[in-house]
């Protein structure tokens, strides 16, 4: 565990960075022992206010320079790369998919990524009461939000609208489909079909005016569709790799358990 000096100004005080070069489990354990708030986690590190610096050291962090801390984090493979003002949510390592294993960075952002590098889209669809539309994927054998691979002649928003319509029968207004984050995939196996040139799944959100409008049974790849409450959404999807991003986008999901 490593911590640099609290010299980084923000919100009227000075902050340090707390990282692990071993595991996220170690990072979270030391952060809890130091009394850091969970919201101070930024994907691959904790922002430590100056008043908590000595607590972090007492909990097991070793002081070092900012340059050395960054070097250690990069070398560990635990660094989550993101743009300025994006919020790092989590880095999920060695996630298994039908098309091979990948490391996945989850990032919350209202700014879309370069669409030339987007291979797929997913949409958090909510009705006017706050319930979520979910679909059961035969290929993945799990519930999730609508989404899928992008066609070569469509934008990420068009991708999101088309997939949602094909899987649920809902026809979304593109003007109300807003980016809220992204998943960046780094393939871990040679048989992975995700390209390093197009590693992004763009995540959107949309809110409908109606309460639980009718859903269809979806296309051939979808076994079932339904509307669920936030609690039911967590029960169905809270164990999945992308759930931390959903909980970041929708604060009411935080603390709900699968």
From TrEMBL:
Keywords, ordered alphabetically: Hydrolase
Cofactor: Mg(2+)
UniProt keyword Hydrolase present: yes
Pfam families: DUF4031, NUDIX
GO molecular function terms noted in the UniProt entry: hydrolase activity
Nudix hydrolase domain ranges (all copies): 114-251
CDD domains hit by this protein: NUDIX_Hydrolase
PANTHER family with a match to the protein in the record: GDP-MANNOSE MANNOSYL HYDROLASE, MUTT_NUDIX FAMILY PROTEIN
Identification of the protein by name: 8-oxo-dGTP pyrophosphatase MutT (NUDIX family)
């Amino acid at each position: 565990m490593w911590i640099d000096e609290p010299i980084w100004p923000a919100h009227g005080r000075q902050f340090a960075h707390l990282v692990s070069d071993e595991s996220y489990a170690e990072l979270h354990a030391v952060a809890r022992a130091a009394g850091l708030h969970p919201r101070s986690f930024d994907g691959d590190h904790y922002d430590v206010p100056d008043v908590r610096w000595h607590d972090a050291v007492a909990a097991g962090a070793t002081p070092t320079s900012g340059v050395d801390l960054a070097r250690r984090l990069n070398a560990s493979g635990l660094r989550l790369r993101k743009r300025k003002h994006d919020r790092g949510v989590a880095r999920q390592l060695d996630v298994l998919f039908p098309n091979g294993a990948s490391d996945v960075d989850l990032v919350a952002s209202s700014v879309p990524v370069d669409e030339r590098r987007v291979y797929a889209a997913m949409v958090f669809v909510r009705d006017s009461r706050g319930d979520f539309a979910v679909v059961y994927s035969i290929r993945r054998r799990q519930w999730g939000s609508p989404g899928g691979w992008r066609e070569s002649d469509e934008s990420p928003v068009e991708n999101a609208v088309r997939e949602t319509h094909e899987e649920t029968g809902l026809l979304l207004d593109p003007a109300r489909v807003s980016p809220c984050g992204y998943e960046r995939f780094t393939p871990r196996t040679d048989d992975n079909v995700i390209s390093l040139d197009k590693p992004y799944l763009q995540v959107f959100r949309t809110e409908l005016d109606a309460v639980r409008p009718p859903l269809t049974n979806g296309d051939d790849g979808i076994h079932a569709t339904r509307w669920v409450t936030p609690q039911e959404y967590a029960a169905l999807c809270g164990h999945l790799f992308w759930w931390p991003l959903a909980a970041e986008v929708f604060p009411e999901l935080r603390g709900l358990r699968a």
